[in-house]
């Protein structure tokens, strides 16, 4: 047997614990494996049924509570019903049988409805939709479609020359085939829809989901809130999704808790998983207990929200959790500020919670740490390390490499100079995942994995400190971690932080310093403007020495003792002497500092002159002069980046040759970007003959007060043997550019690469170009400041932006316990309602621009926007990052509801008129014409020709306004079209050197956009009289006197009252004596009969009235008029209006006549005591045939009659076709119920069940709650 075959599997590399000393610590202190420590896991949710998450090492429940802080699992159960005959009716319409063993003294049940798709994570939803489609739809649908096509073939064979009746039968079969095809194309599964029942059993609240989908609640688990009885259940054997309950607001809100993804379960298992029979698979702290708090909103694809984080921290503070693990984060424009960060810091500073968080996965460039882990002072941010054992066990590398940092692990410093990464820990693991994934474990990597590993390490330390009754604080723990971490000199300190966490050393440090005076306070170290470090990055900052004033202030722990005599005396007696050190020769500072309970300032001089290009890092450390062995008690990070100047000035190029890369090796270049540059091109060329290599290319410029992604380019690429790869990206002139070429950490072998960066520049007057339609021609001046460039300008407008003001605003107090901060501080929410329409299907984005792209740094707690259709059906959600959510919608009317939350009500009241931008994606981009001079722009002359702009030359461009016919439908004044303008001729420049362009619309031209569309509205005037005088059809108009005007007004008033009276027939008869030729009189009478509440009893009168209207219109004359190609008469416009009114009245009369005939025939056939309507099927067919002379059966005006005609003939395929045209125009519950009836008639059971399942979601009684 070979040596390789005899080696045992490196199981300790699967979930690494040896690298941090956690494994040896538990071996040395087996009773300190996390016992007595509670970890709150803020994540996508944790599956209580996953392997390793059942019990702790001493047999206690592993998960002690499960919370959904997002609101995505909330069900409105405010509707209350009482039992009748042992049953209640759920909101789905199902009859729910109440089990006899349920105890409910009040007899009242709260009911609601919840769709499984709202509970499913995306991966599970995709799987279930696929499986359910095959099981419940595809098989039946294929068989039904095949049967219909067979009937069509048999009918064609049997009727080679069909008569009119047979043609209708054929049309019905074809309609069935068409409907089946349409249903197949538009198929969408909402997955199961469950009735929810909540009640109080006399002791506690309980809830039940009708997972049987048959109303048999005895088959369904009835459970109390998880914290009370540790109960959870599985939705079905198909999905294997576990869920639990919480109940709020006296039963009016049910919280159904499930996962938004597998991430949270994996994280929880790393931190505290316990496998009693397989201890090598344990998490870092198997004795710790877990509180699972879901902060990843299922409606947003597991994105976190400020509201969820605030609710989570309220729970953490109220329930005195020891630790928080937070493996989430986003980029932040400003570090260490914002409403959410304030709440997180409150938990740490005032409640003693230790908060551990991932630093981010946005490396390898500097200043890429995410919020809150890498940017917030009170939080321990963790970087990701990969050890040789992990490489062997998790990644099966064929060669053994030294330990390294993952290439993508985010790097510091923050924009205000803080180090960003506090410590590092192993950033990969094969650990448990939820049961719905249908796998027991999975490999995941990221700082999301290093954070729970470090959190588990802290749990071990806390377990031991608690067992020994030794005091600690979040700040003493952090100090111990930093001062004892393992420093690896070969690794990047911006990613490693202070080093790799070491459990036993940190514990020993805390024990040794348990009585240290700084246990009850921390040191706040700041520079000018509140910066937490010195960060010199730009060229102008490193050209001369810089003197920085540094303030150090003790901040005492906020506790019950703070204002007691003991607490006050501690502040009075506080006095410490510090020795200040820094190893960097370019840093000068004083040697000592005397500190008392106040802010003390000293100056630091940094002289970057003489430093080589690249990055330089140093720290000012403050040691206790009386005991320097404790290590630094405070630190001031100093980061200096020395940019290079362009070497090849003529070509504006930086070149690097034969650069060698080992696995994981990173080359950084900091370049002083020319002021005139607007884009750059990076070219890489492999010099290696025998292998392809994997690289991460990343470029970053830090724009002040902007997230690092503002000016970032990132690409993972495979560079083949001797291949060349080009990358273009925009740049900001005058700002230092970091260019990172990073070899992938697991890509074996050495490679050599040549690369260069070339800068280009074509710049307009402004970086953002706005053009108002009312301004006419826009002039732009474009300059080439670096070198000669080929120019070919293009404007492409891709979006129609519709600003909408709220139609309703309401501020309310969220008085539930989950929204009340400590010391009874309520949270307030403003809810804004917006209404808008879309003329056709497409994609939209909902953007609240004032609050967009702000989360952790936002002054407001959260912003969540929910979109609904006209029937209150929930469609989609959007949040602080709107461009992540492209929402596909049909045409129609929509309602968007926006919620913004804050502790201060007065802040919210200022937002009552907050506009919402509805961004409509254009189906195709719109171009604006660009010309070389003003005259060509005015007359739509020759467009701008491509040519070369020499260095230093300024070229004027003239943009012509958009022609009215190009303006998209639905655009109005105040709206604007947005897109980009580019100037370069080559493709790299077009992609990277583009600028934002907005075209603001002015008032539209005074022209009708509703040609050939006439609303059903009657002006009560005399019909035009046909002239035989030969004067062009126009008779001399006679001026009306006041008496005649009064008579007409009285006539019109009486006509308007026909429909208002209980019986308007006598008034109609009276008016007919004097105005029998007045068409609107007969039309009004027909409408009054046809809309009467007793219409079915008056069908004969409706038929007679319709025939009267038809008789009053000269249809032959109308046909002759409509057949005219051109009407040259002087009053042609007036005649046209009158003729169109007659046509509309005629069509309306035929439709109402046919509908009355059809209804009479149907009701008579049912035998529902309806008198014979005096018509027959042949007469109905004649009516339909006459109507078709004027309008197509598929026209909106004719659909009511077309549908009834098909039903009378029992041609349900045709009926469905006409019905779905009505549904497409304006869906309603009644129309969908009629479709269900037709499916029943056709015996399309699968279609019937599918639509029935959708009904509760398509037509809810109220809007879905936030």
TrEMBL record:
Keywords: Aminopeptidase, Hydrolase, Protease, Serine protease. Residues 1034-1095 form the Tripeptidyl peptidase II C-terminal domain. One of its GO terms (biological process) is proteolysis. GO terms for cellular component: cytosol. Residues 785-971 form the Tripeptidyl peptidase II second Ig-like domain. The active site is at residues 43, 263, 448. The keyword Hydrolase applies. Pfam families: Peptidase_S8, TPPII, TPPII_C, TPPII_GBD, TPPII_Ig-like-1. Residues 522-640 form the Tripeptidyl-peptidase II first Ig-like domain. Residues 1024-1044 are annotated as: Disordered. It catalyses: Release of an N-terminal tripeptide from a polypeptide. Residues 661-749 form the Tripeptidyl-peptidase II galactose-binding domain. One of its GO terms (molecular function) is serine-type endopeptidase activity. Belongs to the peptidase S8 family. This is Tripeptidyl-peptidase 2. The lineage of its organism: Eukaryota, Metazoa, Spiralia, Lophotrochozoa, Annelida.
